[in-house]
Design a protein that fits this description.
Helices cover 22% and strands 26% of the residues. With 262 residues, the chain is α+β, with helices and mostly antiparallel strands. The chain has a single domain, classed as CNF1/YfiH-like putative cysteine hydrolases (4-Layer Sandwich). The strands form three sheets. The chain has a six-stranded mixed sheet. A six-stranded mixed sheet has the order 5-6-9-8-10-14. A hairpin with a 2-residue loop joins strand 12 and strand 13. The longest helix is centred in the N-terminal third of the chain and has 14 residues. It is globular, with a radius of gyration of 17 Å. The two termini are 22 Å apart.
């Protein structure tokens, strides 16, 4: 994933998306106005940071991509596999509870917030449609990645094999220890394939969230998946990590938009 620096901000893009008719980025925590503990580009509005600082951070992100903040469509993320379709920007309307956003409307900027969970990007170059999804352990157990692919097919007529997918920075296997309830739920959801994403070390069990979501995408028929392979918990100076920072942290932003000139 290429790293881009502009206007004091740093963000990554997927190689597969760079030459497409898209505007996108996954923003590191640098270049914002929030003080510690949210230092500095926090876009989370429910983590104790001042709302005016969050708004300024969002403005900076959108300005860096030459987008109007009013073009955003975001959701109240609730660790579900529910879909919101965005025909227009949210424009002050009440947040929909969902963890998947889909659109084929150019100029509508899909936006989500992360701090260890898996960002999943989808693009259909044939139908000119996009999707953005948020998958923590619960969203992974609910197979949000698969549901997002099925949603692209249902709403836009996408063929899974035409889709290009990206998996952004998320907590890595070495840092994501899980307990018995999560292990049981994961095994129930993934069946025999569960063990390939679990690692037991000294009686502790760890989950590969990114790998599990890649498998969900592949099983849904997506042939091309580009992975960031960046662990948020390994790099808290660059990314927010709920687990590594004991919950006292912010959220980094992920944006995906169809170019109006595309």
């Amino acid at each position: 994933m290429p790293l881009i620096q502009a206007d004091g901000l740093k963000f990554f893009q997927f190689k597969a998306f760079q030459n497409a008719a898209l505007v996108h980025g996954i923003f590191m925590r640098h270049g914002g106005v929030s003080p510690s503990r949210w230092h500095s580009l926090n876009v989370g509005g429910t983590v104790g940071d001042d709302s005016e600082r969050v708004s300024e951070n969002l403005r900076r992100i959108f300005a860096t991509l030459d987008l109007d903040p009013d073009s955003a469509f975001d959701v109240w993320q609730v660790h579900s596999a529910d879909i919101a379709t965005a025909d227009a920007p949210r424009a002050g309307q009440e947040h929909i509870r969902a963890d998947i956003i889909l659109t084929r409307t150019p100029g509508v900027a899909l936006f989500m917030r992360f701090a260890d969970c898996v960002p999943i990007y989808l693009y259909d170059p044939r139908k000119h449609a996009i999707g953005l999804a948020h998958a923590g352990w619960l969203g992974t157990v609910k197979q949000a990645a698969r549901v997002a692919v099925e949603g692209m097919t249902l709403h836009f007529g996408s063929k899974p094999g035409d889709l290009v997918a990206g998996i952004g920075p998320a907590i890595g296997l070495d840092h994501y220890e899980i307990g018995g309830d999560v292990i049981s739920a994961f095994r129930e959801s993934f069946g025999q394939k569960a063990e390939s994403h679990l690692r037991v070390s000294n009686s502790h069990t760890y989950l590969d969230l990114a790998g599990a979501n890649q498998e969900l995408l592949k099983d849904a028929g997506v042939e091309y998946v580009e992975r960031a392979d960046i662990c948020t918990a390994c790099a808290v100076l660059d990314w927010y990590s709920h687990r590594a920072e004991g919950g006292a942290t912010g959220r980094f932003g992920a944006l995906l938009c169809l170019n109006e000139d595309g």
